[in-house]
Amino acid sequence: MVHFKTQLLLLAASSIFYSQSISAQTITKSQYVEKYKDLAISEMERSGIPASITLAQGIVESNASNSKLAREGNNHFGIKCGNDWTGDNIQVEDDDYDSQGNLLKSCFRKYKRPEESYLDHTDFLMNKQRYQQLFSLATDDYKGWATGLKSAGYATNPKYADILIKTVEENKLTEYDKPRANTAEVLVADNGKKIRNPFSVKKGEKGIFKNNTNKTVVAQAGETLLEIATRYEKPYSKMLAWNDLKPNDPLYANQFVYLESKCSRFKGTKKVHVVAEGENMYIISQLYGMKLSELYSRNNMKLPAEPAIGARLVLSSSNKTAVKLQDTKSPKTVLPINSKDGKDDKTTPKTAAVASKENLQYNKVIDLLEEL
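The structure corresponding to this sequence follows.
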């Protein structure tokens, strides 16, 4: 009797284990999206690859993480080893055959965690020459990306582009191609539109901090460049040069102001900036602590051209694709200028122009002191 009860317990335990393992293997598409959407958005912000396309490829290539390749190798994008892969691998039957037509096991990249697969997917597309043309597309052009991936040879299925597009649309993935609401403070721009201020990450900062290895401060409400130069005892002429400004140029709300020369490239891990509404080349150069001329040069652009919303700008290398430019006839939306009440103050440029006369006198005094 005891032996029979033991068998029943073992049978029940194995049944529970089996049902749990089946349940663990079956992840729905909506569950997959919920789990990896933030990671896809982060990679979009890093590279310009639409989050919708990344999620769609993850769903298609890994069967929403239910495939053997995803379960055992954490590989969500079907990326094979290739000649340049030095990490772990997993052998899985795919589409490789020997000379007799027998199906062979293919070498796929293996990761410790799914997150590594997402990071490698971004790097894989960014570093392969055949995909470079895709990065001239906007982040909301999921159809262009889907077609481009197929044309560049990402998959052998002739209907791959259609499958990706269908996956995006059926799962409403385009909503993740928009900037996250919590990335920066929402401000009202010069035409009344609400946009996000990238400088808000350091809003209210009172002291000196390092941005791209450069000594940096945040322009406080209503503060002019002259006042900042005076406070930190810096020559006004040099402050203008370091910040790519002219005497009558106003500061933007919460703008980063540099107390020394900016760098020629961004030295952080981020390689690409996707242009958001309200941004221009100057704002982006200040955000990353890069010389404005270098940002233009690295992206094969010339003044006074401005990039379109969604355009991909490289920050440390040279852009191999043409940057999509802003239509000069279209109305421009820019961040509000710096004012005491935090609102868009239309009188600030005049104030700056008047102050520039005082700036010249101040500059002469500082230069004389430096010579002593």
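The chain has a mean pLDDT of 80.
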